[in-house]
Amino acid sequence: MSDAPNGPLPVARDTGDLRRAVAAWRAAGLRVGLVPTMGALHAGHLSLVTLALARADRVVASLFVNPTQFGPAEDFAAYPRAEAEDAAKLAAVGCHLLYAPDAATMYPAGFATTVTVEGVSRGLCGDHRPGHFEGVATVVTKLLLRVLPDVAVFGEKDYQQLQVIRRLVADLDLPVTVVGGPTVREVDGLALSSRNAYLTAEERTIAPALYRVMTECGDALQQGLAAGPVLEAGIRRLVAAGFAEVEYLALRDAETLAPLDARPADRPARLLAAARVGRTRLIDNLPVPAVAGSG
Ligand code: AMP
Questions:
Q1: Does domain 194-288 correspond to CATH entry 3.20.20.70?
Q2: Cys-Cys with 34: which of 84, 152, 216, 291 at CB 3.0–4.6 Å?
Q3: In what order do the strands lie in the sheet with 151-155?
């Protein structure tokens, strides 16, 4: 292991170093947390490290821009990379170890296994990013098995991803508690995202309309109105605000992500969206709780 160039945070690049560090903590009776990331860290990522620190004695953040979760026409090559800055930010919030493997360490020659989570991976981003959740589920399974944390923290920002991971952890009996962290936003409501760096100044003025329109739709859905007309009106408002394309704006069961015609009285629902401003794809989601007494 070596120190990060900009700070005291130790960096593990190979699995042996990682496992030795975690084993030493375990031998000392310490609880271990994991926060997987693709780097270009912002306050949203760091909030997950803080959540992990509240539930574990030692926290590993992983940084791996996972090629298998990007489609051939997506932004893998352009994805922002800033490891030295990331290491300094992680050290500042009290993270104990950065695990930053390279692609050959993650996918050695001959690698041939894919983890597919049916059901929750289908629809929404699963339709628009074929193979994306297989890439996510496979790399997260590997990270969980390499680190063997007591707790792993993921953002609600990527809500479908969080449900995919909850499902795979349950189905594969992985001995880890999955925790979802709330979405951290800019003051104007835009969810923090590494991809916000792609926005031009003009696009940045359009982007907050996603959260604004979703909040309006969420309020209407919370009253029990039929989803169809509410969501159609929402899509029109997003286009009028300057979004080039709305891939989906959908009301779903909060756990299974099954489509809903209206907010159910007895189960939590979630409103989810993906939309493009210019060439940048933004996603967001909100809870749609039942209003007490409204049926
Ligand atoms: P990424 O680096 O985009 O793969 O994200 C790593 C983790 O950070 C994932 O669990 C994301 O859901 C989470 N995350 C990304 N953006 C935010 C945000 N604005 N607030 C909270 N968590 C986030």
A1: no
A2: 152
A3: 2-3, 10-12, 97-99, 58-63, 32-37, 151-155, 177-181
Closest atom, ligand 1, to C-alpha of 191:
19
Query: Which residues are 178's β-sheet partners?
Result: 152
Render pLDDT for 57-90 as a digit per residue (tens, 0 to 9): 999 999 999 999 999 999 999 999 999 999 999 9
Q: Is the CB of 101 under 6 A from ligand 1?
A: no
Residue in 42, 45, 96, 128 annotated catalytic = 45
- Confidence class for position 7, pLDDT limits 50, 70, 90: low
Atom of ligand 1 nearest to the CA of 161: 12
pLDDT digits (tens, 9 = 90+) for 142-162: 999 999 999 999 999 999 999
pTM beyond 0.90: the answer is yes
Is 45 considered catalytic here?
yes
For the stretch 88-108, pLDDT in tens is 999 999 999 999 999 999 999
Cα of 63 vs centre of ligand 1, distance in Å, is 12
Phi then psi dihedrals of residue 190, to 5 deg: -60, 125
Nearest protein Cα to ligand 1, atom 10 = 154
Residue 131 in this model has a pLDDT that exceeds 90:
yes
Q: Where are the domains of the chain?
A: 11-181, 194-288
- Ligand 1 pocket member 44 (CB < 6 A): yes
Class of domain 11-181: alpha beta
